């Protein structure tokens, strides 16, 4: 204010008051901008919907699918050159832990992240366990198989067939499987563990020695195995193909001195009563009457998601004719926006027990305007 008075000493008191008032208002505005820019985001907390890239009305299925893809993409051990990967990964886990739980999600929608403190939300769980069997469950090893320079032994890998319907492969679905798994529990006593071959030097005399291979073991607490049931959730993604493998890392056979093996579910497509799948295309057969074959017809087929597919012919349909309906096939696994085609092969149901009179035959010949004709050939 002293500077202002010096600079505008020749001005009237009215001008002096206006300029001081302007500076006060400007100062208030700067403080308000600071509050809006820095304080409010802290109070508001993280936007879990934005983190997972889903809408606020997203279903649990959509939340799980988004989480699975982002968790694989931003796992720190897969992005060691990205210093922000760990923070992104933690945000993704926190978002999934909240949005996949009905009670936590309702609290978050009502009171934000701050309201979750009353529910004891700590974000310390392992949301990966139902997807992959643990944080290392992506098939990338993630540095968990080394201890010093010695490889940790692993249990056997189990591969199981999972039979799914064509509807599930077309629409996507989640399937729950109960896994009865042997789990190690502490037991009394000690046991030999981590046995390995090491070279040992034995002196034989002055200047003489011998090197031999010797088994060396550690002493570890004893364990016993108890069978426990665990629910595993398998996501049948749109467009998955027969033979696709879905891994659960660490859910295979246990190893007493190491890590358990993996459990893999191999997708097996069940036979469908209406459609046959080849790649992304669907194939179906349709039998029509001779009347429809000659006069044309319109009908509708119930597709795998129950939408109606119109099949229409306005001209003659012959036996063996194939109709292609674009974008009515299976969704492409890599790009669900792309779909294959539906191919329909027609067969004509001719009347078998009908006897035509001479006048009927002449009338048919007149309508068809065809002469009698036969041809013999190898059609194989």
Q: What distinguishing features does this structure have?
A:
disordered N terminus, alpha+beta, 380 residues, 10 helices, three-stranded mixed β-sheet, four-stranded mixed β-sheet
Q: Overview of this structure, please?
A:
α4 runs antiparallel to α5 (85-99). This protein has helices at residues 2-7, 13-44, 48-52, 60-74, 85-99, 102-115, 129-132, 166-171, 290-295, 358-368; strands at residues 146-147, 150-151, 158-164, 173-205, 208-236, 245-248, 263-269, 276-278, 281-289, 297-302, 308-313, 322-325, 342-349. A hairpin with a 2-residue loop joins β1 (146-147) and β2 (150-151). Residues 1-17, 36-42 and 133-148 have low confidence and may be disordered. The protein is α+β, with helices and mostly antiparallel strands. Strands 8-9-13-12 form a four-stranded mixed β-sheet. It has a three-stranded mixed β-sheet with strand order 3-7-6. A two-stranded antiparallel sheet has the order 1-2.
Uncertain spans, ≥5 residues at pLDDT below 50? 1-17, 36-42, 133-148
User: How confident is the prediction overall: mean pLDDT?
Assistant: 81
Helix content: 25-40%
Oligomeric state of shown chains: single chain
* Run of helices and strands: HHHHHHHEEEHEEEEEEHEEEEH
Number of DSSP helical runs:
10
- Give the end-to-end Cα distance, rounded to a whole number of Å: 104 Å
Largest sheet geometry = 4 strands, mixed
Walk across the major sheet and give the strand order. Answer: 8-9-13-12
Based on secondary structure, the structural category is alpha+beta
Shape: flat
């Amino acid at each position: 204010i002293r500077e202002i008075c010096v600079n505008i000493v020749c001005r009237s008191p009215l001008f002096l008051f206006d300029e001081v008032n302007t500076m006060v208002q400007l100062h208030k505005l700067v403080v308000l901008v600071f509050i809006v820019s820095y304080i409010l985001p802290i109070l508001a907390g993280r936007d879990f919907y934005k983190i997972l890239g889903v809408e606020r009305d997203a279903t649990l299925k959509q939340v799980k699918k988004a989480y699975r893809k982002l968790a694989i993409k931003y796992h720190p051990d897969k992005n060691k050159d990205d210093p922000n990967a760990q923070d992104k990964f933690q945000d993704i886990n926190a978002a999934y832990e909240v949005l996949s739980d009905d009670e936590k999600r309702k609290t978050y929608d009502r009171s934000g992240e701050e309201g979750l403190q009353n529910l004891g939300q700590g974000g310390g769980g392992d949301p990966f366990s139902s997807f992959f069997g643990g944080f290392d469950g992506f098939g990338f090893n993630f540095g968990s198989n080394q201890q010093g320079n010695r490889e940790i032994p692993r249990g056997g890998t189990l591969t199981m067939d999972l039979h799914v319907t064509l509807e599930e492969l077309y629409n996507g679905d989640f399937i729950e499987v109960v896994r009865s798994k042997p789990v190690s529990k502490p037991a009394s006593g000690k046991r030999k563990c981590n046995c390995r071959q090491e070279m040992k030097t034995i002196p034989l005399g002055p200047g003489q020695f011998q090197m031999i291979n010797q088994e060396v073991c550690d002493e570890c607490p004893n364990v016993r195995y108890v069978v426990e049931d665990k629910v595993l959730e398998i996501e049948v993604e749109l467009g998955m193909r027969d033979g696709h493998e879905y891994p659960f890392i660490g859910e295979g056979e246990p190893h007493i001195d190491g890590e358990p093996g993996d459990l893999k579910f191999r997708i097996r497509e069940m036979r469908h009563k209406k459609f046959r799948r080849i790649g992304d295309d669907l194939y179906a057969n349709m039998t029509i009457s001779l009347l429809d074959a000659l006069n044309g017809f319109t009908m509708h087929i119930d597709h795998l998601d129950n939408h109606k597919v119109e099949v229409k012919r306005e001209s003659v349909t012959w036996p063996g004719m194939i109709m292609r309906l674009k974008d009515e096939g299976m969704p492409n696994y890599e790009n669900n926006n792309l779909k294959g085609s539906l191919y329909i092969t027609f067969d004509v149901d001719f009347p078998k027990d009908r006897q035509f009179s001479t006048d009927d035959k002449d009338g048919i010949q007149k309508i068809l305007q065809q002469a009698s004709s036969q041809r013999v050939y190898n059609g194989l």
